[in-house]
């Protein structure tokens, strides 16, 4: 009897030891980053594809999830897959434990992806002889593409980038409270000018509800008669400027913003005795700024001794801050005459070629051109649908000619097509509702060198 009980006791102990071993094993897997195995496997990986995700990104993320679906819980695996894609494409950094785990899980997948990508890049660069041969076969290639456009990898690649993975084209302005209002950041009047283009009314006026005093004024900024910014200051001008800054920050969170790159490439046209010299520079006339008085100026020092603290003169500081420019006349020509030494026909041809080209860079005419010649350039620019602006004073006066591009086209070229000509020229900030679509364009753009 005692022997029988002893055998039963041993059997029960053996039965108890097996579950304990499973728990230890499960714990070891959990410690290594793997799940316990007690989760469902019937969830659909393809349901996690987003409409804005490119084919390349989705293939990599999908492969990662399929490879580890049986070892991880659904939520954890989806997060790890997104972490892997962020590390691979955007170089994101995470805690060392997470990065080591993802690196271990994605080793084979990442190596296979990189190998295919390198092969694709090698096929992109074609030798000169191959390119000549392709040009000779241009008609047959074009006919084949027209017959079966699905086999055209370049068209497919373009289509995927425009449609974020080959789905329906994305609506960049969907769910935005101010529709297609786009802010072009270029000076104190940027909000007014941008709203005028979008057929909206922007206005800054004194606040009638707040009791103003001799030392404190109040103002509001309105968009279609709705307050979007408020401010106060020692005078009405300062109060309006404060309201403007608040309105700008508010609209930037709800609208797209565009800003010119101050160090963009610019075509510099300079007249010399031996002809016209054309170069490409990394600065533009609109980013140089006009000269202002500083401590090295005698008048500046005299004004400071008399109690001047900076800003415009007048009771409300409404006076100008920059010195009055002057025109240095270096010839005996009468007013309105044209410099006969300059060949306007050649300059007109230069501008016509610029209009016909796909070059997006500015054309900057240096101070070596006379005032009369700049006036002619202004007329030519207007005749050919270009925008012309003058910067600087006196001997530093420059003329900048640029192509007119709709703001909506700039947004599409930078965000959707990623055209290098536009990306090098413009910075774009996306509204908060579109930050998940374009995480590389969420950095805030600021106005610079503006006065109250």
UniProtKB/TrEMBL annotation:
Matching entries from CDD domains are given as: R3H_NRF
Q: Where is this region: Disordered?
A: 1-29
User: What's the domain of life for this entry?
Assistant: Eukaryota
* Domain R3H: start-end pairs: 341-405
Recorded GO molecular functions are: nucleic acid binding
Q: Ranges for the G-patch domain?
A: 295-340
A single Pfam family it belongs to is XTBD
Looking at the record, the residues that make up the XRN2-binding (XTBD) domain are 45-129
Protein name, as recorded: Uncharacterized protein LOC108044709
Tell me the organism.
Answer: Drosophila rhopaloa (Fruit fly)
Chain's gene name: LOC108044709
């Amino acid at each position: 009897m005692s022997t029988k009980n002893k055998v039963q006791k041993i059997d029960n102990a053996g039965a108890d030891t097996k579950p304990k071993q499973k728990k230890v094993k499960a714990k070891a897997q959990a410690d290594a980053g793997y799940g316990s195995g007690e989760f469902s496997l019937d969830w659909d990986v393809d349901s996690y594809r987003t409409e804005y995700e490119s084919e390349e990104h989705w293939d990599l993320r999908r492969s990662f999830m399929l490879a580890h679906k049986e070892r991880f819980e659904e939520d954890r695996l989806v997060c790890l897959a997104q972490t892997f894609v962020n590390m691979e494409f955007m170089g994101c950094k995470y805690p060392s434990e997470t990065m080591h785990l993802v690196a271990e899980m994605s080793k084979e997948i990442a190596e296979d992806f990189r190998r295919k990508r390198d092969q694709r890049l090698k096929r992109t660069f074609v030798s000169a002889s191959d390119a000549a041969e392709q040009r000779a076969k241009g008609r047959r290639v074009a006919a084949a593409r027209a017959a079966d456009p699905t086999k055209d990898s370049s068209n497919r690649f373009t289509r995927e980038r425009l449609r974020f993975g080959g789905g329906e084209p994305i609506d960049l302005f969907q769910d935005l409270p101010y529709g297609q209002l786009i802010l072009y950041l270029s000076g104190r009047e940027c909000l007014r000018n941008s709203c005028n283009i979008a057929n909206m009314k922007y206005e800054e006026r004194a606040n009638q509800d707040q009791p103003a005093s001799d030392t404190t004024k109040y103002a509001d900024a309105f968009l279609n008669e709705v307050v979007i910014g408020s401010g106060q200051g020692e005078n009405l001008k300062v109060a309006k400027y404060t309201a403007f800054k608040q309105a700008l920050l508010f609209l930037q969170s709800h609208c797209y913003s565009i800003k010119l790159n101050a160090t963009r490439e610019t075509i510099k046209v300079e007249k010399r005795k031996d002809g016209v010299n054309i170069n490409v520079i990394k600065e533009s006339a609109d980013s140089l700024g006009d000269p202002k008085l500083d401590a090295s100026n005698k008048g500046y020092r005299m004004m400071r001794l008399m109690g001047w603290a900076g800003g415009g003169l007048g009771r409300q500081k409404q006076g100008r801050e920059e010195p009055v420019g002057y025109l240095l006349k270096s010839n005996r020509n009468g007013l309105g005459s044209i410099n006969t030494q300059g060949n306007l026909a050649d300059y007109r041809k230069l501008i016509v070629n610029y209009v016909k080209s796909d070059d997006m860079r500015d054309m900057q005419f240096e101070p070596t051109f006379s005032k009369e010649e700049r006036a002619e350039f202004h007329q030519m620019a207007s005749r050919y649908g270009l925008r012309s602006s003058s910067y600087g004073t006196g001997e530093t006066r420059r003329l900048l000619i640029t192509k007119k591009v709709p703001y909506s086209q700039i947004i599409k070229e930078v965000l959707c097509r990623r055209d290098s000509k536009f990306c090098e020229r413009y910075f774009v900030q996306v509204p908060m509702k579109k930050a998940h679509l374009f995480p590389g364009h969420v950095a805030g753009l600021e106005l610079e060198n503006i006065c109250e």
